[in-house]
Amino acid sequence: MTATPTPAAAATAPAVEAVGLQKHFGGLRAVDGIDLALSPGRIYGLLGPNGSGKTTLIRLLSGLARATGGEARILGTKMPSRTALASIGYMPQAEAIYPDLSVGENLGFFARLEGHADKAAIDRVLDLVELRDRKGTPALELSGGMRRRLSLACTLVHEPKVLFLDEPTVGVDPALRVQFWTHFRRLAADGTTILVASHVMDEADRCDELVFVRHGKVIGRGTGAELRARAGTDNLEAAFLILSGLDPQGNPLPQPTPAEPMGGGGPMPGGGRPGAIL
Amino acid sequence: MSPSRILAIARRIAQGFRRDERTLGLMFVVPLVVTALLGWVLNDTKDTVVDVVYVNPGGEIGDRILTALRTAAADPDNDLRLVDPVSTEAEAVAIVRAGTADIGIVVPSDLVAQILAGTRPTFTIISEGTDPAAEAGRFGTLQSALADIAGELAPPGVTPPIIPQVERKTVYLSPDASQVDVLAPIFLGFFGYFFVFLLTGVSFLRERIGGTLERLLATPVTRFEIVSGYSLGFGAFATIQVVVLTLFILNSIEVPSFEVAGQQTPAFSIGLGVDSAGSPFLAFAIALLLSLGAVNLGIFLSTFARTELQIIQFIPLVIVPQALLSGILWPIERLPDVLQVVAHLLPLTYAVEGLREVMLKGADLSSTVVQTDLAVLAGIALFFVVLASATIKREVA
Fold first, then answer.
1. Contact in structure between B173 and B130 (CB atoms under 8 Å)
2. What is the pLDDT of residues A198-213, one digit of tens each?
3. Beta-ladder partners of A24
4. ipTM passes above 0.90
5. Half-sphere exposure of B35 (CA within 13 A, CB side)
6. Contact list, A82 vs chain B (CB under 8 Å)
7. Which residues lie closer than 8 Å to B178 by C-beta, 6 or more apart?
8. Which of chain A's residues have a Cβ under 8 Å away from the Cβ of B219?
9. What's the predicted TM-score (pTM) here?
10. B 219-278 residues with CB below 8 A of A?
């Protein structure tokens, strides 16, 4: 079921599927009935404020959490499934690397767990994140941006067919961010399905398609242009607010910052619920 | 110097404490609990009955002493019990070795002649010699009984009554074995347990808070594989630790005095040079099983900590009661009943018992005590493996 689909099937069979997916933590509906169908070879942006359910959705899709209701399928396999994990790459929000291991040792470790420990694969991802000359450096001694790159490399080392990236470019400088996206694009061209969670709207336009989530629900989906047109604005951030049922003119919303576009204020019930997730 | 800055720092510490109920609890509750436990153990230490085997030299005097001992044993205040008397010292040693009696008393056959000559007769007291704390208690019990007997034995007209001298003989170790000899097995068990627990706890906590556990769980690895890998990895280091410690305890290298820059250095020795009666490999196996339990206890308890400081806070809960109750400081049979039950739930209890059996008494795998200890330690290790696996949450596998 993880075999590469035939070109005809690829056009129809989604690589990532969610049907009525729900995750409740007590009374909190972190993911509240989400339907998704992500096609192979495309990059999807999962956008929403902190606490909107992005991370929980990714954890459900990658089998790290069990859904309260509905189901998730990866390459046709119902999650959670251990066999499907081999074709998934998951980059958590945290750096999730071993500071006392060197760059090469970190990669070697995760590659072995994935059953993919060939030197060529490790050197390939090292080139990709431009850390080849740091192979012997302890992760502890890397700069913040380098550690982020190493974290991405650990995610990619087993050449997964489906990539879940939870805010992958936080702390990455603009030049390198461009390179990351160039690489994501190349992976997508090779048939990898990528879901990037972000609250940075300026990254959204690099995605083929966007999914706006708020309070655990999908409030809009489509290309950036489609969403802007539907909201009647040329600003993606404003489009998000309008699709959230807010009036950017009427409410004294705070100056949106990339980190917290929805932060505080306004008459919206429940607010952004920061910290509600995880 | 600005008082307000000093106050600001002090205040910041108080504010941090306010949100950390666990640390607050630790500072005020745990010392009370540990002190209460200590008080309980010390106040309610039980007087255990001492089993005595008497070596009867025969003759009238021998029988008189036996009668006196029986009278002493009949008095419930004395906590003394007589097992059937034997006629040779060798038989008494065998009985103490078998554990049927705690103490053997050998009375010289020329006792009367010695008393009449005015010399103090010498009684020989035989004990195991492996647990000074327990034996000190037994000698106390015996001493009061002996005082009674001495009073009865004194022939009329002889004043002051003759107090016999006591010569100690031990079944295992030498009678003047140092505290180090007796404690060596405990070092082996205790350090293995303590450091392995601390290191695994901190290490696994880092996996949890650093996100690497999350990443691990997004690979096809199973929980059992993670726990086994941890056990193997830390087990390897525990092995090295136990080997180094065993070598240090059992060997002693004399470093002679030598001259440095015109000065004579004092001679000294490296290592304790303790005589281990039994197989170092068996002792090693016990210590390793104990460490295996400690690895998985560390993984399990890391679930309940959010910071490395909180792992350290488990020490008074995990380590201190074991140090108090596992038979290191007081023999378990002298603990209050409730605490005896607790003691038998603690892994260190079995490790200390097993290590003592092997290293001090030379027990091997045919000993049921050693078999039981190994089985219980393996059971405890397995229990913690299951518990640790259960705390690694993933919906897969």
1. yes
2. 877 777 888 999 998 8
3. A29
4. no
5. 6
6. 220, 222, 396-397
7. none
8. 85-86, 110, 113-114
9. 0.77
10. 219-222
